[in-house]
Amino acid sequence: MISEIKKFLKHSFIYGIGALLSKIVGFLLIPLYTRYLTTSDYGVLELLDLTSTIVSIFISMRIGSAVIRFYYDSADELEQKKVVSTAYMATFASALLVVLFSQICSIRLSCLIFDTNVYDKYFKLVFMATALSLISSVPEAYLMARKQSIFYTIISLMTLSSYLILNIYFIVFLKMGILGILYSSVITKIFNSSVLSFYCITKNSLFFSFTKFKSMLKFSLPLIPANVGTFILNYADRFILQKLATTAEVGIYALGYKFGYMLPVLVMGPINMIWVPQMFELASKSDKKTIEKMFTYIMLILIFCGLGLILLTKDAIRIMATPPFYPAYKVVSFVVLGYIFRGMASFFWDGIMIAKKTIYIGISVFISALSNILLNILLIPQFRAMGAAYSTAISFFIMFVLIFYFCQRVYSIKCEWGRISKIAVVSLFIFFLNQWIVLHPVLLSLLFKTFLLTSFPFLLYLINFYTNDELSRIQTFILSLTRVKTK
Predict the structure, then answer these.
(1) Closest residue by Cα to residue 346 from 423, 263, 282
(2) Which alpha helices (H) appear in 261-357, and where do they start and end?
(3) What is the DSSP code (8-state) at residue 264?
């Protein structure tokens, strides 16, 4: 159990560094975008990206999502190479279809979404970037399956650095606006996909197994409606805002959502990168006890980090963005709450994948997505961006309930709900205390909120959250740090 936790923490930390630096680059770009793009430009960029994503979900067949699951089906190296190579070739063919689609349909999409054909070139560029991301997906899954977190993070950081430099060059010096962002994306993804593809092909060669492809396709096809539903849950509100409100409202909401989305990117993403393959490995050893214990620890990390985002975002937006974007902070609390439910669902989602009953994932996410659309249509006309935020939180809660129900049917996981409820109680107490006490200026506000966050583990201690074994290990850890300092 302890060795599994150490392995989990080690790789999660490395992936987390990459994700953190990725977000730092994203934050460095916020002042750039908000000064060189209008709120409408920001909304256009968001809708371009979302359109290409939904098209790629259908064309890609989601083969890349099956790599890690089937990689652990056999310990034989040749069989593992067949899985990776077959998936790569299938995904590469899907990427070519995405590019072909863009050449045929870009003008029509521009007219459909923006009521003008001037965005034809923009769509072609964003689809090219999407195709390159598809090509990279299998090598990335291969690195995660082999737990090569350091190499994965190094490549990611090199890609991010070049993206930042190119954005500054195209936007600031060449004044290219949205086109500059799209050119930067395509160029950096050419580098990323080329390096990862070379590594993947060198390690696995290129051969196609129809048997493996058929098995992976059977596994991944039910995930297409799940991925469509996930897309709707994450992004449909932008399109509905565009139609029922304004493009400027989309831009403001998109900025607030970007802050809330830090939770899946900085926390859930790194955790899943190591936990998903580790969970499949534990399942193959029938070690369900460790799996059940890990849910409590993952929820502790997820809720604590989500609380931190909620507390600090308002001040962060006022420091980083211009006044027209200030209202974006209001949506963050509900977006973060939604992604906490999404993180809970993700854990039991993996349990369903262990049982290879992916049809249940499709059903759950599809129902949740329909709920999201209905809620957005009902709430956006009255509450605008906040209506979209409310819809996000409610819809992800619905998804969690359904995923949890189906998981218990096919791969029962017992949870420490009493301990998890204590985490929730402490986080709600800190949240409402922060709402009640409002301090100025920004520096004093940030210091107070930092104090609230640091009180989190101590408040858990006061309500007897920790087990005796956990207290003993925390004490040992503190003593070891003390010894290091005295030396």
Answers:
(1) 263
(2) 262, 269-284, 288-320, 332-354
(3) I
The pair phi, psi for residue 380, each rounded to 5°, is: -65, -45
* Tokens linked to 253: 């909401």
The 8 Å CB, 24+ separation contacts for 479-484 are: none
Token pair 């390096």 in the structure block, residue: 195
Residue 17 has pLDDT above 70, yes or no: no
Model confidence at 436: pLDDT above 80: yes
Check: CB of residue 427 under 8 Å from CB of residue 456: yes
Residue type, 183: Y
What predicted TM-score, i.e. pTM, was given to this entire model? 0.69
| End-to-end CA gap in the chain | 31
CA-CA distances (angstroms) from residue 270 to 67, 146, 233, 265?
18, 15, 21, 7
CA 235 to chain CA mean position, Å: 12
Listed residue (171, 197, 198) closest to 184, CA to CA: 171
Q: What is the per-residue burial (b if ≥16 Cβ within 10 Å, else e) of 304-329?
A: bbbbbbbbbbbbbbeeebeeebebbb
Q: What is the pLDDT of residues 336-368, one digit of tens each?
A: 999 999 999 999 998 898 888 888 988 998 899
173 HSE (CA, 13 A, CB side)? 6
Q: Which residues, other chains included, contact 61 with Cβ-Cβ below 8 Å and sequence gap of 6+? A: 90, 94, 217, 220, 221, 224
> pLDDT category, 179, cuts 50, 70, 90?
very high
The CA distances from residue 453 to 90, 271, 308, 312, 447, in Å, are 46, 21, 7, 10, 10
- Separation CA 369–CA 371 (nearest Å): 5
DSSP state of 323: G
> Quick one: tokens of 378?
């009902």
Pair of tokens at residue 287: 């070690």
Residue whose pair of structure tokens reads 């993403």 in the numeric block: 269
User: Which helix (H) or strand (E) element contains residue 10?
Assistant: helix 2-36
3-state SS class at 73: coil
Taking alpha carbons only, the member of 379, 377, 373, 372 closest to residue 395 is: 372
| Cβ-Cβ contacts under 8 Å for 465 (sequence gap 6 or more) | 419, 422, 423, 426
Exposure on the CB side of residue 355, measured as CA atoms within 13 A: 17
Q: What are phi and psi of 207, to 5 degrees?
A: -150, 150
The position carrying tokens 């890349």 is 64
Query: How many CB atoms within 10 Å of residue 235?
Result: 19
- Contact between 102 and 123 under an 8 Å Cβ cutoff? The reply is yes
Length of the chain, in residues = 487
Q: How far apart are CA 448 and CA 302, in angstroms?
A: 21
For the stretch 59-96, pLDDT in tens is: 766 676 678 778 877 778 888 899 999 999 999 998 99
Return the percentage of the chain with pLDDT > 90, whole number: 38
Q: Which long-range contacts (CB under 8 A, 24 or more apart) does 318-322 make?
A: 318/442, 319/442, 320/27, 320/30, 320/31, 320/34, 321/30, 321/31, 321/34, 321/255, 322/34, 322/35
